Amino acid sequence: MRPDLGCGWQLIHDRASALGILNRLERIVPPHDWSTGLDGGPRKVVREDQCIAGLGPHA
Fold first, then answer.
1. Measuring CA to CA, which residue among 57, 32, 30 is closest to residue 44?
2. H-helix segments, the chain
3. Distance (Å, whole) CA 5 – CA 25
4. Cα–Cα nearest to 48, from 35, 58, 39
5. Cα–Cα distance between 10 and 25 in angstroms, integer?
6. What is d(CA 24, CA 15) in angstroms, rounded to the nearest whole number?
7. How far apart are CA 39 and CA 51, in angstroms?
8. ∠ CA 41-33-43 to the nearest 5 degrees?
9. Per-block average pLDDT, block size 10, for the chain (59 residues)?
10. Is-above-0.85 flag for pTM?
11. Which residues of 17-39 are buried (b: 16+ CB within 10 A; e: fewer)?
């Protein structure tokens, strides 16, 4: 910890209070359902160097 730097959460609280939006910090927002997005859900990365010969993504 550095005493010359302010606490990040205290700075957020002070700014929200000054803007009159402090109640937004108390609201719980549910997680976003990405499965209904245009891309059809979470991305999948396939590394061809990790695929078993003949069973890769282009098999």
1. 57
2. 8-19
3. 22
4. 58
5. 12
6. 12
7. 24
8. 20
9. 86 94 91 74 76 68
10. no
11. eeeeeeeeeeeeeeeeeeeeeee
